[in-house]
Amino acid sequence: MAKYIAQIILAGSRILGRAFAKALQEEYAASRNAAKARASTSQSSSSKSDSNASSTSGLSLEEAKQILNVSDIFDTENVLKKYEHLFEVNDKSKGGSLYLQSKVFRAKERIDEELQAMKSSASPTPPSTDNSSPSDTKRPET
Length: 142
Description:
This protein has 142 residues and is mostly helical.
Protein backbone atom coordinates (compact mmCIF):
# COMPACT_ATOMS: atom_id res chain seq x y z
CA MET A 1 0.00 0.00 0.00
CA ALA A 2 2.81 2.40 0.87
CA LYS A 3 4.41 1.52 -2.44
CA TYR A 4 1.34 2.76 -4.35
CA ILE A 5 1.13 5.96 -2.32
CA ALA A 6 4.79 6.65 -3.04
CA GLN A 7 4.23 6.05 -6.77
CA ILE A 8 1.22 8.41 -6.78
CA ILE A 9 3.21 11.11 -4.97
CA LEU A 10 6.13 10.65 -7.35
CA ALA A 11 3.90 10.80 -10.46
CA GLY A 12 2.11 13.88 -9.10
CA SER A 13 5.36 15.67 -8.38
CA ARG A 14 6.61 14.90 -11.91
CA ILE A 15 3.43 16.33 -13.41
CA LEU A 16 3.65 19.44 -11.25
CA GLY A 17 7.35 19.84 -12.05
CA ARG A 18 6.74 19.64 -15.79
CA ALA A 19 3.81 22.05 -15.57
CA PHE A 20 5.89 24.49 -13.54
CA ALA A 21 8.79 24.27 -16.00
CA LYS A 22 6.48 24.83 -18.97
CA ALA A 23 4.82 27.82 -17.26
CA LEU A 24 8.24 29.25 -16.47
CA GLN A 25 9.35 28.91 -20.10
CA GLU A 26 6.15 30.57 -21.34
CA GLU A 27 6.56 33.43 -18.87
CA TYR A 28 10.18 33.91 -19.92
CA ALA A 29 9.17 34.02 -23.60
CA ALA A 30 6.34 36.48 -22.88
CA SER A 31 8.70 38.69 -20.91
CA ARG A 32 11.24 38.66 -23.72
CA ASN A 33 8.55 39.56 -26.29
CA ALA A 34 7.27 42.38 -24.07
CA ALA A 35 10.79 43.77 -23.75
CA LYS A 36 11.20 43.71 -27.53
CA ALA A 37 7.85 45.46 -27.97
CA ARG A 38 8.78 48.12 -25.41
CA ALA A 39 12.12 48.70 -27.10
CA SER A 40 10.56 49.12 -30.53
CA THR A 41 7.82 51.36 -29.12
CA SER A 42 10.28 53.59 -27.31
CA GLN A 43 12.42 53.90 -30.43
CA SER A 44 9.47 54.88 -32.57
CA SER A 45 8.03 57.26 -29.99
CA SER A 46 11.37 58.94 -29.39
CA SER A 47 11.68 59.60 -33.11
CA LYS A 48 8.33 61.38 -33.24
CA SER A 49 8.57 65.15 -33.05
CA ASP A 50 5.31 65.47 -31.13
CA SER A 51 6.17 63.16 -28.26
CA ASN A 52 4.43 63.71 -24.94
CA ALA A 53 7.47 64.63 -22.91
CA SER A 54 10.13 67.00 -24.03
CA SER A 55 13.62 65.64 -24.38
CA THR A 56 15.13 68.69 -22.69
CA SER A 57 12.73 69.28 -19.82
CA GLY A 58 11.29 65.80 -19.34
CA LEU A 59 7.82 67.27 -18.86
CA SER A 60 4.70 66.79 -20.89
CA LEU A 61 2.77 69.85 -21.96
CA GLU A 62 -0.03 69.01 -19.54
CA GLU A 63 2.42 68.80 -16.63
CA ALA A 64 3.90 72.16 -17.60
CA LYS A 65 0.44 73.73 -17.73
CA GLN A 66 -0.37 72.30 -14.29
CA ILE A 67 2.87 73.55 -12.76
CA LEU A 68 2.33 77.10 -14.01
CA ASN A 69 -1.43 76.86 -13.41
CA VAL A 70 -2.36 78.01 -16.91
CA SER A 71 -4.97 76.59 -19.23
CA ASP A 72 -4.10 78.45 -22.44
CA ILE A 73 -0.46 78.39 -23.49
CA PHE A 74 -1.16 80.97 -26.20
CA ASP A 75 -1.84 83.62 -23.52
CA THR A 76 1.87 84.38 -23.25
CA GLU A 77 1.35 87.35 -20.95
CA ASN A 78 -0.42 85.19 -18.37
CA VAL A 79 2.17 82.41 -18.73
CA LEU A 80 5.00 84.89 -18.20
CA LYS A 81 3.23 86.49 -15.22
CA LYS A 82 2.69 83.09 -13.54
CA TYR A 83 6.25 82.04 -14.31
CA GLU A 84 7.80 85.18 -12.85
CA HIS A 85 5.65 84.98 -9.72
CA LEU A 86 6.38 81.30 -9.05
CA PHE A 87 10.07 81.73 -9.85
CA GLU A 88 10.39 84.62 -7.36
CA VAL A 89 8.36 82.89 -4.64
CA ASN A 90 10.57 79.81 -4.85
CA ASP A 91 13.83 81.76 -4.80
CA LYS A 92 16.32 80.06 -2.50
CA SER A 93 17.34 83.36 -0.89
CA LYS A 94 13.71 83.94 0.13
CA GLY A 95 13.41 80.51 1.72
CA GLY A 96 12.06 78.84 -1.39
CA SER A 97 12.91 75.51 -2.91
CA LEU A 98 15.48 75.17 -5.67
CA TYR A 99 13.70 71.99 -6.76
CA LEU A 100 10.39 73.81 -7.21
CA GLN A 101 12.12 76.73 -8.87
CA SER A 102 13.70 74.37 -11.39
CA LYS A 103 10.31 72.73 -12.01
CA VAL A 104 8.83 76.16 -12.73
CA PHE A 105 11.71 76.96 -15.07
CA ARG A 106 11.37 73.63 -16.89
CA ALA A 107 7.60 74.12 -17.23
CA LYS A 108 8.12 77.53 -18.84
CA GLU A 109 10.82 76.07 -21.04
CA ARG A 110 8.46 73.27 -22.15
CA ILE A 111 5.67 75.70 -23.00
CA ASP A 112 8.08 77.91 -24.94
CA GLU A 113 9.34 74.83 -26.78
CA GLU A 114 5.79 73.84 -27.71
CA LEU A 115 4.98 77.35 -28.95
CA GLN A 116 8.17 77.40 -31.00
CA ALA A 117 7.34 74.01 -32.52
CA MET A 118 3.83 75.16 -33.39
CA LYS A 119 5.17 78.37 -34.90
CA SER A 120 7.74 76.56 -37.03
CA SER A 121 5.28 73.91 -38.24
CA ALA A 122 2.50 76.42 -38.92
CA SER A 123 4.55 78.74 -41.08
CA PRO A 124 7.13 76.81 -43.06
CA THR A 125 9.40 79.05 -45.07
CA PRO A 126 8.53 78.89 -48.76
CA PRO A 127 11.37 78.13 -51.14
CA SER A 128 12.99 81.19 -52.59
CA THR A 129 11.79 82.11 -56.07
CA ASP A 130 14.44 84.77 -56.44
CA ASN A 131 16.59 83.88 -59.44
CA SER A 132 19.25 86.47 -58.75
CA SER A 133 22.77 85.28 -58.34
CA PRO A 134 24.77 85.98 -55.20
CA SER A 135 26.80 88.60 -57.07
CA ASP A 136 23.58 90.55 -57.79
CA THR A 137 22.84 91.07 -54.11
CA LYS A 138 23.88 94.31 -52.54
CA ARG A 139 26.57 94.10 -49.95
CA PRO A 140 26.98 96.62 -47.19
CA GLU A 141 29.69 99.15 -47.87
CA THR A 142 32.70 99.00 -45.63
